[in-house]
Every structure is written in structure tokens, then in C-alpha cells.
Amino acid sequence: MDSTRKNRQIVIDSQALATLSFAQEGIFKPVDKLMNKEEAIEVDNTRCYKGKPFPFPFILAPSGKKNQEVIKTIEKGETLDIVVNGEIRGQIVADGFFEIDRKKRIEQIFGNYDTQNPATREFLARLGRYSIYGKYGVDYDGIKNVKKEIKQAIKSSGARSVAAIMMDARPFHRAHERLLRITLERSDLVIVFLSKHHRKSTKITYEVKHDILKYAIDNYLPKNRVLVVPFESTYLFAGYNDAILDCICANNFGCNKFILGNNHTGIGLYYDKNEIKSILNKYESLNIDIEVVSKFVYCQECKTLVNSSTCPHGPHKHIKYNSKALRRFFRVGILPPAVLMRTDVSSKFLSACMPNRFENINTLYDDIFPNEGLLENHSEEEFYLNLMKLHQTTSLT
Question: Which of the two residues, 56 and 240, has the higher pLDDT score?
């Protein structure tokens, strides 16, 4: 987006740009603008905006000495360029600014002020003292394209029941697959919002997660009824309010069901007259059906994957599907057991985690596995698949 004259600048990062785009594209509806001081105070007190739930004020308070100096000296009606990575990506027509309570802002996002938490420290480092407000426009196609894709999928499929599942899929394991199957039984179309992180520390890229998830869906699920789209997981979703924000976003993207696990951050499960409810039950005005699903485990007695709330055998018989634990397998180069992940899926994931792990994969492959005496090229993924088959050989064990 080009500026017609030399404007002063506000410099933000890609997370802030995506966050501004959420509101601009109506995904945070009814929030569609940056809040002034009075609006921010009202949301602080009521956790609502224009009668609809929203967990904290929607503001822009970028850190940096230059940013803060610009904000403190703005003139009403002044146009500022919004710059990301040295490129002008939008403008804001300043209406005013106000000082924020940085500690309170952290508590609004994370539920506490724990500076030992890396996420808290990261957010604090990017948060300034002054928030600017006014009409803005940003140039960011990501969220706009997702809106179009979902709208087209709903229209072409004729789906009436559209379910949303927020998923990180690091890695995609059998419990994820079971959740998708159960959701498909109750819905015409399932939208998988696959987390797209902006943190540089994330080693598994969105593209890798997407390719592996799409492979699993295309081979083991009715692919015409599952749509995978990127979900910009910005700093606003880092805290304990992410379940509420997820609901708001899913609803505004066009879904009428929201499926999440009972271990999802911030859902606050509690009993009400012998019925399990969550904090989300208090937000009926979200206009979306919310279903909290108990976690899935593999029961050694039932000899199958079961819902932990309906299995009679107890946790001492349960093998758990823990994504962090599975990542530890991959971090040291071990394929997890097939009961946890499909072998072809785990082979793809390990190949992505450790590319070019072996100096000469073709020689290693030919030294172990049967061949017809011909020179052939073999991938690491192929090597892992056949290695797992050897692990499952029973005649000598």
C-alpha cells in the first residue's frame, strides 16, 4: 500500500498486522476498530463490547521509543503509515491516544502477571505505554482469503452444519483423527483451523503441518467434507482467553458448531446440577453451539481408542495421546509406536523434523532391506516406513 505523501510511521510486526486484520475483516465482530479509552474501560468492566462478549480491550500499543514518541505527539486527523519489515502495509488516521496499565494488560491476556513465563515476557517486550486509536486499513490477504475459502466451501457443499476445530497438529496423532471422525458423524462440513504461529522459535513450519494433515485427511477421511485453513495464532491467543476468542472467530468465519477438548486452555470446566459445563456456557450470545469433548486414550483392556469419560478401566490402563511427549520422540529421532500415530504419518513428520539425517540413505536402505540388485533412490520417509515394518515383525520375537 503506497502512501501519497511523507507520513510519520508506526512500526509493528507481522503478529500485530494479522491481529489488526482480524478486526478489519469482521472476524472479531462486533469489534471492528481500535478502542478509545472510554470503550476500553467499559470492556474491562463488562467483558463485552456492544452487548457481545469480548474478553479484553482491542488496542494497539506498540513498543519502541520511536513509536511511543510518535503516538504521544499525534495531531487529531493525522495520517500515520503502518510499517512492517520496512514495508508500508497500511495507514491509520489518528483520533487520539491514551496511556495504558501494562501490568493490567498482561493480566487481561494471561490471567496473571508471571514474568517468569516466556510468553508473558515476550508480550511485555512488545507492549508500549501508549495506545493509539482511529480509523485504520491494512493490506493483509491471509485472513481475507480464508474467509473466501470457507464461504465457497459452504456454498459448494450445501452444508448446513459446519463445525470448527482449532488444531495445532504437532504432530497429527490418532486422537486427532478420532475427533475428526466423530465430528464428521454430526456435521456436514468440518473446518480445521490449523495454527499458524508467528514465533521464530517454532521449528515445525505451518507448511509441514499442513502437508502432513492434508495427507492424512486425503487418505483416511472423506476429504470433500474436511477443509484445512490457516489460523493466525497471534499474541492475543496466547493467554487463557483463547477459547472465547476461538469461538468468536469460528462463528464469524461462518461456523455454527465449535468442537474443543476438555483440556483446552481457558474453558474452565465445572459442574452445574450434575452437568459438565464450561466458562463458554456463559456466552450464549456467541450464537454457536459449543461441544466440549473428553480426551481420547488407548485402553489396554478395551484394546482400542476410547473416550476417557466412558471407559470403565481407569487411567492405570490408559495410554495417553500427549503432543508434547510425542514431539520428544521426534526430537531424538525415534518413531512413536503405531498405536499413537499412523506409521506413514509419523514417517513424514520425522523426515520433516530431521531432514538429511543420514549421510547416504540409499546405501543404508540397500544394506538392510530386500532389493532386486538395481540401484534405486529411496527417501528417508520410505526408510522409516520399512524400518517400522521390521519393528512389527513377530516371527523372531
Answer: 56
